[in-house]
Design a protein that fits this description.
- The structure is a single chain.
- By secondary structure, the chain is an alpha/beta fold.
- The strands form two sheets. It has a four-stranded mixed β-sheet. Strands 5-6 form a two-stranded parallel sheet.
- The radius of gyration is 19 Å and the shape is globular.
- It has a domain of 112 residues: P-loop containing nucleotide triphosphate hydrolases (Rossmann fold, 3-Layer(aba) Sandwich), CATH 3.40.50.300.
Length: 244
């Protein structure tokens, strides 16, 4: 959509990197080399099959980073220290975090401004959210006061089941206006595309999966533009001080 986007895979499972065709077992450059100070971000950065979409990949070595970070000075802000200059060159930077609330996730939460939470429309998915929200409040208070949750993304939604409808209703009830209007439906093509190392937008652009994520992207851009317009309006209403 004409935006310059950086993806950062901060998950040792490396699902994002694999999805984009990176051989995570081939000892290629990864975010681990940046964290450990062995390489600069520009040496790790990779272009993807989509124009304007860059990637800093992960690999299995990142699993040891949690242990190594424990003894580092400023361990909660290592990512910010090494990547801050690079981040300003992009319209959007998306960081894929591990499914745990360890030091890697903590590093991501100290550098970002907002959080998107993909939430499966299944019962157990709701159970882990309360712990995440507690952590969010602590980090906002102590480390990053600009942090906000700006979107819950209902995903893997199956409209054919009563459970899917019930959980979706519960998500909307609990999070209210934080829930994106776009719902990501279960889609076979979405499940297939990672095995081919190709994003859904290239693998099956006419599929429901691609259409859903395109709609979500448009909603995110519109949300940002609305927030920008609101900020500009507030600034314009501030009166200049008058010297007496």
């Amino acid at each position: 959509m004409g935006k310059k986007v950086l993806l950062i895979d901060l998950d040792p499972q490396s699902n994002l990197s694999i999805h984009l065709g990176i051989n995570v077992h081939g000892k290629e450059s990864s975010i681990y080399q940046i964290i450990s100070g062995k390489k600069k971000p520009r040496d790790v950065l990779k272009k993807t099959a989509i124009k304007g979409l860059d990637l800093i990949p992960s690999d299995i070595d990142l699993a040891s980073a949690e242990i190594e970070l424990v003894n580092m000075v400023g361990r909660e802000t290592i990512i910010k220290f090494y990547l801050e200059k690079l981040l300003s060159k992009y319209d959007y930077v998306l960081i894929d975090c591990p499914p745990s609330l360890g030091l890697l996730t903590l590093n991501a939460l100290t550098v970002v401004r907002e959080i998107f939470i993909p939430l499966q429309t299944e019962f157990f998915a709701l159970q882990g959210v309360s712990k995440l929200l507690q952590t969010f409040e602590v980090i906002k208070k102590r480390l990053n006061n600009t942090l906000s949750i700006t979107g819950i993304i209902p995903c893997m939604y199956d409209s054919r089941t009563k459970l899917g409808h019930a959980v979706l209703d519960k998500i909307k009830e609990y999070f209210d206006d934080k829930v994106f209007g776009t719902i990501i439906r279960k889609n076979v093509k979405l499940s297939e595309s990672p095995s081919h190392g190709i994003p859904i937008a290239l693998y099956a652009p006419e599929s429901n999966g691609a259409r859903d994520y395109e709609a979500l992207s448009k909603e995110i851009i519109a949300q940002e533009e609305k927030m920008f317009d609101t900020t500009v309006e507030k600034i314009s209403q501030v009166k200049e001080p008058v010297l007496q």
